[in-house]
Amino acid sequence: MQRLLCFFFLLPALVCAQGGMWLPSQLEKLNEKEMKALGCKLDADAIYHANQPSLKDAICQFDGGCTGEMISPEGLLLTNHHCGFDAIQKLSSLQHNYVEDGFWAQSKAEELPAPGVTAMFVRRMEDVTLLALQDVTEGMGEKDRQAQIDKNIVQIRANTKKEKWEETLVRPFYNGNQYFLFVTITYNDLRLVGTPPSSIGKFGADTDNWVWPRHTGDFSMFRIYADKDNHPAPYNTNNVPYKPGHFLPVSLDGIEEGDFTMVYGFPGRTDEYLSAEAVRQTGAVLDPARVSVRDRALKILDSYMRKDPAVKIAYVAKYASIANAWKKWQGEMLGLKTYKAVEKKEAYEAEFTQRINANTDWKFKYANLLPRINQLLREMEPYALARDYYLEACVRNNEILGLVASLNSWIESYDKNGAVGFNTKIQENASRLEEFYKNYRPEVDEAVFAGLLELYAQNANPDWGGTYVKQMVAGRAKPDDFSGFAAYIFKNSVFPNQAKMKALLADKPENLALTLKNDPAYLFYKGLNSAYIDNVQPKLQTLTPSISLLQRQYMAAQMVVFKDKRFFPDANSTLRLTYGPVRGYEPRNAVHYEFQSDLDGVMEKYIPGDYEFDVPKRLIDLWKAKDYGVYATSEGKLPVAFLGANHTTGGNSGSPAIDARGNLVGLNFDRVWEGTMSDLNYDPAICRNIMVDIRYVLFIVDKYAGAGYLLKEMKLVQGQKKHKKKK
Ligand code: ARG
Ligand code: GLU
Questions:
Q1: Measured from the CB, is residue 653 less than 6 Å from ligand 1?
Q2: Ligand 2 lining (C-beta closer than 6 Å)
Q3: Confidence (pTM)
């Protein structure tokens, strides 16, 4: 009920604990009071300070898409297992299968360099809106506006005082109503310190993904190395462990329901301020289309993976990545519907309209916004659907067409510039291809290709590629014989064939270019792509900027009209803080989820030999002996994961869960099924983030892996928290 009240009457946010991903530099103004009311003991400037050490100095963007945190004065970094997975997989071989068996360096000398892995810290951030929007006028077209802003940003970056090892970036916030400058520093000598085996780090795999209760030890550890001045330097044996401006003490106190937590990290993308129509379209039109394509791809992949363990190894990571979004979209569709997101947005819009109608000035400025947005969105709908079908069926989940698409500009450049440029790119593309073939099976891809094209031909508007696909199929095989057509392509194209491709790359550039340009997979891709470029793209290109412009105006209008409401900017892969209590939830009548899981639950799910639910023997032994040491709860259980009402999204993986005093209590890695809609419709009653309990991390490192020496470099704290009465 409180949820409804908050929504309809827009009570002051303090009562609602509304969630949000806040800017660390604005906490004092917007959040400090609420945070303290929720139990936080830290001042805003202990969390973020531009010139003094603060919590932010312990937080980095890990490898571009995740978050990591410093947990020792010697650059020890904690992140998720699924964030480190790429590096772990690359470092593995048949002799050293770290994915299967885990790995723990027994000393710094044993740590494994992880080439390409990065850690980016934010030194400071500044509101540069006035400078970024200088000379931008109301009447400007979107193109000119963007050109002016880009020019301003170049100026801003040039005028920013920074050290030579630092970088700058400027990003739009609130749909382009505000701009912030970030001064950052990126380290690129990272080394793998340790990882549990997948049977712990990935326990539950795809079946448990996005679902509570969860029993995954989703963590891994790296160490950042720097030059002797503590500055970034490429890998070098002379580099020394990085000394962070701050590292998080690790709490052994554990958490209880209601405890204050905050999650500090780099959330990727949310869209909380769209119109009801946009949300309806996502949940009712676009999500179902994307899901249907991935459904088909996953079923085909699964059938091959079950038949052949080697195929399974080759495709397990790809399968997990396709399945991750596939499952999330289904949760999102369900959540939007069950918790009436569209109806709530409509009520909000009714309130918006009522308020502007009562104010002549607002009415003049804003009355057209929503009707216009909705009109354009409806006009856009078939094209947005065509785009998603095309991307899902012909690019993202279609390996061979995806490969051709990614090489297309290189191949085309031969026509324009001849051997110039083409030559130098051969090497670059050779390594890209090497990477591609490592886990590629043409027979699997052929089946996926046939299946997805069939779906595409049936569903894509005839003019937007449907007819083209059918014609091509009929031309090479019998009508609707998609398998026959796939067989033709895969037999005659060089792209699926590593040996042929390798020989070709060693050939003269003119032969290489000519062969690729006449390749049947390439020609088919070109035709398909032209249908898209000619018939879908132009409309998208005219509608998208108009909708962005209106969305920017609608965002600004919401902030004016609902002055009593606090607005956080949508996630955009920049540093954010979210906070909320540790809390279970009630997704449906008579269903209550506890806030914490423990090792007994791992054993409940145990299926010997299963690829998702096997449990290593050593962990079973520790469970039987109840050998949990100081990591047990007061009830003698070993905590594994817990829930909080923190507003998180993709990119928050690996983010620390920090307690009221600034200590590490958990590691964020997922959200609950009913709450995956939070990217469009955050609802504090339902949406929960899932964290690994830090005591489980310590237990695995110490008791399971025997790497307890790592704990010596951490700052373990205990007894800081007065235990509250259980509610
Ligand atoms: N759902 C989590 C996040 O988006 C975890 C993904 C990795 N785990 C997995 N089972 N695929 O990205
Ligand atoms: N697993 C997600 C990630 O990799 C975080 C969970 C979420 O999307 O909330 O970033």
A1: yes
A2: 66, 648-653, 669-671
A3: 0.94
